[in-house]
Amino acid sequence: MATKRHHHLCSSYFLLLLPLLLQFYSGESQLQFNYYAESCPKAEDIIKQQVINLYNKHGNTAVSWVRNLFHDCIVKSCDASLLLKKAGGIVSEQASERSFGMRNFRYVDTIKEALEEECPVTVSCADIVALSAREGIVMLGGPRIEMKTGRKDSRESYFTEVDKLIPNHNDSLSTVLSAFQSTGIDVEGTVALLGAHSVGRVHCVNLVHRLYPTVDPSLNPEYGEYLKRRCPTPNPDPKAVLYARNDPETPMIIDNNYYKNLLNQKGLLIVDQQLASDPRTAPFVEKMAADNGYFHQQFSRAVGLLSENNPLTEDQGEIRKDCRYANSNTNNVY
Question: What are phi and psi of 279, to 5 degrees?
Fold first, then answer.
């Protein structure tokens, strides 16, 4: 009897500990708030100040930081693989068509240099991606998000995986929901994350299929004509700086005007407009359009989840000396 009871108790303890063990081996347990409190106490303040300085000089950097987080974290891991340049057999993820329109990578180097001066080879580029996004969201009028740190940097690029993991602008809502679900983000969180489209812009090359030869009937007709004036040809030069704002009213503020526009048939991308018509997402669109606080709450939750997607910790990764190159490639750059 005693032996059976002993085995039963051991099994019960194992089941209780199993979630913690899984969390530990997945790396999540290694992320923590104020990870650099002892090794580099000023790290988060330095990143914050650099983001503010760059925003004051180049306002569009704030949007870039938010997009960097999405592109980095949804591809395998939040590990700064996005930042790697071509070197030593690595093909940069930035070369993918999914990275079209991304810019300001050089200013990540500015932030890294400030950190290296304070604490050499201590703060990972992956944490710079995450924390610069957090501060960028604040600069864009969004909520301040509590974010864990302790990520390590990838030694490799996932160029061949980018097209599979990052939805295309023409992809269906089901594809987008599936992509985010794979990182642990539910439907409500996905609707909130797409609210990042409240800021930034859409290049005409990604929009004209909804305007020519006739305006997509799911677009507000007057808005469709306005967009045709912004994008006056069905064959725009991909390099041309012709674009439309996602949110004409408050184009540099992360707010719920995005959802109000969707309810008025003013979503720029197909997936945007599908949010307002699909029964899985429409109730959340209506609720976020009516309550900016609720949108910010769900946006914070979803960004936090995204930022913790499959992080590399301990010896799974490294602390890059230069965010553009794995440490093994810094002496072999070409």
Answer: -60, -20
250: domain CATH number is 1.10.420.10
The structural domain count of the chain equals 2
Q: pTM (2 decimals)?
A: 0.88
Q: Does residue 296 carry a catalytic annotation?
A: no
Query: CB–CB of 100/200 below 8 Å?
Result: no
| 238 annotated as ligand-binding | no
149 and 96 belong to one structural domain: yes
Q: Residue 215 annotated as binding?
A: no
Structural domain that includes position 318: 43-164+308-329
- The pLDDT assigned to 177 comes to 96
Residue found by looking up tokens 């304070």 in the block: 118
Tokens matching residue 194: 């797409």
**The two three-digit tokens of residue 211, written as one number:** 């305007």
Q: Does residue 11 have a known ligand-binding role?
A: no
SS3 content of the chain, % helix, strand, coil (to 5): 55, 5, 40
Low-confidence ranges of the chain (pLDDT < 70): 1-29, 239-244, 330-334
- One of 71, 169, 203, 209 is an active-site residue; which one? 71
Answer yes or no: do 185 and 145 share one domain: no
Taken as a whole, the chain contains a residue count of 334
Q: Which pLDDT value is given to residue 88?
A: 85
In a domain, 144, yes or no: yes
Determine, yes or no, domain membership for 12.
no
